[in-house]
Amino acid sequence: MPTSDELLAHAWQIHQQGNTPYAEKVYRSVLEKEPNHVNAWCYLGIAMHDLKRYDQSVQAYERALALQPNFPIALNNLGNSLRYLGRVQDADAAFQKAIDQSPKYFNAFRNRGTLHAWTGRIDLAFKYYHQAMQLNPNDAELHRNLGVIHLLQGNFQEGWREYDYRWKCTEAIQHNYRQPKWQGEPLDGKTILLYCEQGLGDTIHFIRFAKALKDRGARTIVHIQPPLLALLQGCKGIDYLVPNSLKIDQPFDYHCSLLDVAYVLGIDSTNIPNQVPYIACSKQLIDYWRGILTRELPPAKLRVGIVWQGNPDHQADMFRSVPLEKLAPLAEIDGIQLISLQRGAGTEQLKTWKGSKLIYCLPESIDQTSGAFMDTSAILHFLDLVVTSDTSMAHLAGALARPACVMLGYTPDWRWLQNRTDSPWYPTCTLFRQPAVGDWDTVVQGIVQYIGNLPV
Length: 456
What we know:
Layout: H1 4-16, H2 20-33, H3 38-50, H4 54-67, H5 72-84, H6 88-101, H7 106-118, H8 122-135, H9 140-152, H10 156-163, E1 191-195, H11 200-206, H12 208-214, E2 219-224, H13 229-232, E3 240-243, E4 254-257, H14 258-264, H15 283-296, E5 302-307, H16 317-320, E6 336-340, E7 359-361, H17 374-380, E8 385-389, H18 392-399, E9 404-408, E10 429-433, H19 440-452
Parallel strand pairs: 1-2, 1-4, 2-3, 5-6, 5-8, 6-7, 8-9, 9-10
């Protein structure tokens, strides 16, 4: 009969292999027999965190700490779960206690820096990241995080260099080809393989660099997510488009991530290739949706598409997504027609909408036939304005040169930079920023005023 410690060790191995629900059952079975097993409570806290059940994670760590107050690992993990719950002061206090108990605890310094990076205290983020750097100067995740902050601040040269460490992080998807990675060599008569590395919005954002390399004489092969194939067929600068579910069957001379092209080209806020639109939408599809929506919708002075919820699995979703109820002031604008562009997660909030005007909901079949974003792209040409949180919709509207108001959290994604209402990436986007963490009311009021000043 295995001991409790042997059961925990076995469950932890399974946990690390990705089967968290199984590990949770084992941790709980140990606790049923030994309710005061400190390590079992800590393991359960980790499982709850990984399953995004952060309240339960906090409770598990607190039980462990009640049994063993001197437990820096549990304190550090507690700080992380509190961070995801937005309990900033409590999280900071937990990290401080972990450091007090273990003054050279690298993870506690790094995680404390991330806490403050998320919540806008960039000065404190730098402070704790640099303290972590003294303990482990070669940590790839730490360098990557510093790169994100430098990019956010507009320090592009240092930012690209530090952000390049992401390829050394354990979760990075490596691209191992016998051909060399492009480092800026001449491309006349050469073929370069370009590939995505993050989400759909990131691909839409950085696909502009295919044309930049095409202009340098390259033949471009672009390896992208299958859902984007139809949308990017009309993108300038692409010679050959391949879904990344398939292997490349054509010869090429170099390879490079689309994002890394920006690094190699030395892109900064002064030389971003921002000629829009760089994604095309067929006139036939635009006319099709214009006809449908003209028949479906009553006459309106202003038709505004809205998106409020991003990917709920994104680690910073609680700072990026906007509760739909916060958009109610938009409905008070005279002559406005609100149209939901939201798909999937977040649409359940429409059931509790209490705005003074109904939100028109598009058919559920949108983008199901033609491909991801295809119908939506055509619909954007019918709308006067898009109001969106920081989602792929912001990138789509920007790439199509459609006017958009982008609602940004207090510490936004790095590409939106700081302290500006315009975007050097997307000339048709206007940025509205939180003045404090969680303050979406001020953001929405700013958009209401902006719309009120638009020419009718």
